[in-house]
Amino acid sequence: MHADFQSWVAARQSHFEGVLRELLPRPDIAPQRLHEAMRYAVLDGGKRVRPLLAFAAGELAGAEQTRVDVAAAAVELIHAYSLVHDDMPCMDDDVLRRGKPTCHKQYDEATALLAGDALQTLAFQLLAEHRLNGDAARQLEMVRLLAMASGSRGMAGGQAIDLASVGKSLTLPELEFMHIHKTGALIRAAILLGAYCGSRLEAAQMDRLDHFGKLIGLAFQVVDDVLDCEADTATLGKTAGKDADNDKPTYVSLLGIQGARDMAQRLHREALESLAEFGGAAQRLRELADFIVLRKF
Ligand code: GRG
């Protein structure tokens, strides 16, 4: 990682931690245990890839930082809720997340369920109560975009397909369809929401950003599958080897490790091509694409 990019990431991550601390309900306000669990699930952990993508897209569109902070927080709250629910016994049944006990292990299942629910609704509350765009209709479009990305035709739908595919063999297009929804939709939304906070881009430019998001979201998942096989639990901060243990179809089970790596490289290349027209303004997005594909955790 280039030193300038590294320090940008570190500065954004630390700034964003403060933003989240402020936006989450205080732990001393009733119901304390629920608020504590929400903060436990969100704070002090995670790579913050989606917020970083929102920041980079916001920079490209000349957005005010305070606006992108809120949009990025909304996306991260949805992501955190999805991890809390995914880790529960009715889904992936895991005990470790972000190097800590999962939310239902630290608290209890009912609290984890409610914490996830409340994080999800808080995300939409934030989008509704902060001024994120001078044009109210465009801000409403942002709310719709996040709802679509999170719901049955986005992340939750992808998760449903994932749960139904355990023990089955999927074709490559079927696997791709699942991941474009489960992982890709929110990554795509992060980029578009960041851009929405800035000055209006042409429709064709938004399409290019969306295409970039689609490709890099898929690359993120392909790399995730490779890491699940190759990295250890301590490095990942979550249980390694879960996919094979759960008999889940993955890019590695379909293409082999080298095939999956080649696919990630191809997606990476195509993602960068879709940014060509933006020139230097998309430099942070390019660096994030590199990070997503080259990451080791
Ligand atoms: C419960 C509706 C619902 C959806 C769950 C995101 C998800 C859908 C499940 C998580 C399981 C998983 C391992 C998905 C694959 C890729 C992924 C989203 C990994 C976790 O995201 P990172 O690596 O996590 O960005 P951090 O902790 O860094 O934020």
Please provide a written account of the structure:
The structure is a single chain. With 297 residues, the chain is mainly alpha-helical. It is globular, with a radius of gyration of 18 Å. The two termini are 14 Å apart. The mean pLDDT is 95. Helices cover 71% and strands 1% of the residues. The protein has a two-stranded antiparallel sheet. The relative contact order is 0.12. A hairpin with a 2-residue loop joins strand 1 (96-97) and strand 2 (100-101). The protein has helices at 3-23, 32-42, 49-60, 65-86, 103-106, 109-129, 136-150, 155-164, 172-196, 203-230, 233-236, 242-245, 251-273, 283-294; strands at residues 96-97, 100-101. The protein is built from 14 helices and 2 strands, in the order ααααββαααααααααα. The chain has a single domain, classed as Farnesyl Diphosphate Synthase (Orthogonal Bundle). Bound molecules: geranylgeranyl diphosphate.
Observed structural traits:
297 residues; mainly alpha; Farnesyl Diphosphate Synthase; 14 helices; 71% helix; globular; binds geranylgeranyl diphosphate
Helix-strand layout with pairing:
Layout: H1 3-23, H2 32-42, H3 49-60, H4 65-86, E1 96-97, E2 100-101, H5 103-106, H6 109-129, H7 136-150, H8 155-164, H9 172-196, H10 203-230, H11 233-236, H12 242-245, H13 251-273, H14 283-294
Antiparallel strand pairs: 1-2
Helix pairs in contact: 2-6, 3-4, 3-9, 3-14, 4-6, 4-9, 7-9, 8-9, 9-10, 10-13, 10-14, 13-14
The structure holds geranylgeranyl diphosphate.
